[in-house]
Design brief:
Blueprint (H helix, E strand, L loop, with lengths): L1 H5 L12 H22 L5 H4 L1 E8 L5 H9 L6 E5 L5 E6 L6 H14 L4 E10 L1 H29 L2 H25 L5 H31 L5 H33 L5 H26 L26
Antiparallel strand pairs: 1-3, 1-4, 2-3
C-alpha cells in the first residue's frame, strides 16, 4: 500500500525524447530473437515434435545417472530426463519409435520393465504422433496470426489506422521477442507455453488500448500542442495505472513460478517475460510510433465528437 501511495499519479517523464533509442532497442531485440530462433530453434515438447512422455515417481530421490544408464542400454533412441519438481519426480522424454502405435506401446513396456525396481508410480504416460504434432504446430501458428489480425481490426475500427498500425507493430514485437526468449533459454515449448504467447498478446493490447484512449482524449483536448507533448502527456497520465497493474500481475506470476510446480513453470515464466516486454512495448514503442505517422492534434475515431458536439477532424 505504501508503494502505491508513493507512486506519482502523473509524473513528467520525457519518453518521446528517447523514442529513437527505444525503437533501436526494439529493432535489436526483434533481430536478436529472429537470429536465435533461426540458429537455436525452439525446444519443442512432445506436444509438437511427437514421441513418448513418461512422468514417474521413484522410491527415493531420483538417481538421474542410473536412470539414464538403464534407458540408454535399451536402444530406444534419444532419451532425455529431468527432475520434475520434487526430487522423486522425473520426466522422461523418448523419441518416437519407428512403426505405429504398437511400436510405441512396446517401447513403453520395455522402459517400464527396465525401471520396475526404482519406480514407485507412473504418474503420466503420453504418446503423440508426428502428424498430430505437425497439425498442432500449424494450428498454433494460425491461432496466433488470426488473434493478432482480429486485434488489429478492432483497434482500426475503435480508433484510426495509425493506432492500428502502431498496436500491431507492438504486438508483433512482443510475440517475436517472446519466441526469442524461449529459443534463447531453451525452455520447453509446448501447448501451455503457446497459450502463454496468446495471453501475452491479450495483456499487451489491453495496456496499449488504455494508453491509446488517453492519447485520443488528449489529442481532442489540446489541439494546438505539438504532437510529441500530447503523447508524452498521455503516457505520463496513464503510467501509474500501467506500472502498478503490471507489478501486481508479476506478483501473482512469480508466486505461480515458485510454488506452482514444473507443470506450469514454462507457462508462468513465459508470462513473466511477456508482462515485462508487453508493458515496455505499450509505453516505449506503440505510442512513440504515432509521432512518426501522419497524425495531428484533434484526431479521433470517426464516430467520436469533439467538446463542441461537432464531428472531430480525422487524420490527414
Amino acid at each position: 500500500m505504501a508503494i502505491i501511495k508513493a507512486f506519482p499519479v502523473a509524473p513528467k517523464l520525457n519518453f518521446l525524447s528517447k523514442r529513437k533509442l527505444f525503437l533501436a532497442f526494439s529493432a535489436f531485440l526483434m533481430l536478436g530473437s529472429i537470429v536465435s530462433f533461426a540458429t537455436l530453434g525452439l525446444n519443442f515438447g512432445v506436444d509438437f515434435r511427437g514421441g513418448i512422455l513418461l512422468e514417474v515417481r521413484t522410491n527415493g530421490p531420483a538417481d538421474l545417472g542410473d536412470l539414464r544408464s538403464r534407458l540408454s542400454a535399451l536402444d530406444v533412441g534419444e532419451v532425455t530426463l529431468q527432475e520434475f519438481g520434487a526430487p522423486t519426480d522425473v520426466l522422461i522424454n523418448i523419441q518416437r519409435q519407428d512403426g505405429g502405435e504398437g511400436a510405441q506401446e512396446a517401447a513403453i513396456q520395455i522402459v517400464k520393465e527396465a525401471l520396475n525396481d526404482t519406480v514407485e508410480e507412473y504418474r503420466r504416460t503420453e504418446f503423440v504422433g508426428p502428424k498430430v504434432g505437425g497439425e498442432l504446430k500449424q494450428a498454433g501458428f494460425l491461432a496466433t496470426v488470426l488473434a493478432m489480425a482480429a486485434i488489429g481490426l478492432y483497434i482500426w475500427f475503435r480508433f484510426e489506422w495509425h493506432f492500428s498500425a502502431a498496436a500491431l507493430t507492438a504486438l508483433v514485437h512482443d510475440v517475436i521477442a517472446t519466441v526469442g526468449f524461449f529459443s534463447l533459454t531453451q525452455v520447453e515449448f509446448n501447448l501451455s507455453t503457446l497459450a502463454a504467447v496468446l495471453t501475452i498478446a491479450g495483456y499487451s493490447i489491453n495496456d496499449t488500448v488504455v494508453i491509446f484512449d488517453r492519447v485520443r482524449d488528449e489529442l481532442r483536448k489540446y489541439k494546438k500542442l505539438p504532437i510529441v507533448e500530447v503523447l508524452n502527456m498521455a503516457i505520463n497520465r496513464t503510467l501509474s495505472r500501467t506500472v502498478l497493474t503490471s507489478f501486481t500481475t508479476l506478483l501473482a506470476l512469480f508466486s505461480l513460478f515458485i510454488f506452482g510446480g514444473e507443470v506450469i513453470r514454462g507457462f508462468s515464466l513465459g508470462l513473466i517475460w511477456g508482462v515485462i516486454i508487453g508493458t515496455y512495448s505499450s509505453v516505449a514503442l506503440a505510442v512513440p510510433m504515432l509521432s512518426f505517422m501522419n497524425i495531428r492534434a484533434g484526431v479521433t475515431s470517426s464516430n467520436d465528437k469533439d467538446e463542441t458536439g461537432d464531428a472531430a477532424p480525422a487524420a490527414s
